[in-house]
Amino acid sequence: VGGIAFVVIRNATHMDPTCYDGKRNGDEVGIDCGGACTFYCKDELQEPKVRWTRFFEVAPGLVHMVSYIEHSYPTAASKSAPYTFYLYDEKNNLITARNGTTYIGPMGRSAIVETLVQTGNGVPAVPRFEFSGTIPWEKVSPVFSQAVIKTDRTLLEAFNNGNTMGTRLTATLENQSRITFEDIDVVAILYNKDNNAIAVSKSILASLKAQETVTVYFTWPTRLDEETARIEVIPRINPFTAKQ
Questions:
Q1: What is the pLDDT of residues 75-104, one digit of tens each?
Q2: Strand bridging mode 108-118 / 164-175
Q3: 91 phi and psi, to 5 degrees?
Q4: Which residue, among 32, 138, 34, has the nearest Cα to 80 in the 3D structure?
């Protein structure tokens, strides 16, 4: 009788391992991470590499800041990666800091941009960027890293903005995949002949449907067309809002 009761109680109270039970069980690498779980464990993947960080003055007391990053994980992405931009003067005094969170798509190069950062009376000299917390990497389908969004027919031209001359970039994005992407940050970076970034701008594209071609515009309040030798347009795809 005792043996039968033990079996009955064990079967009644036994629960199969899950990725949300607060225990390391099943094939998990850590507690509720790794193995078949949605999230990678924090020690499984490294942070994206920060290739460079720059700031660009757009008006007195206002700058755009950009950090160029890269990672090589085809099946890893993050819905909400926390970060901080710092801006220092030439004496290494902190002028301002801007916190934010952003999504990170699967493998490839990307750029995180903060626009219209106020500098007050400070004279910015040194920008810095860091991920300010653990990045929650999630597993995503490898089809996202294979999706091709072709950038073509970029036109950079000067235009008359009242009493001053500005610069406008017209770029065409062609989604060659069968995936519809939503809420895409599209970043444009201009480089000079020495391959140094001289300007950045960001546009938000609400939707880019499968097999669709769209035109995106970027503007700057100064003349940049004659100084620009190379243009890079980066569509930052978000696999968590995409529709396959």
A1: 999 999 999 999 999 999 999 999 999 999
A2: unpaired
A3: -95, 10
A4: 138
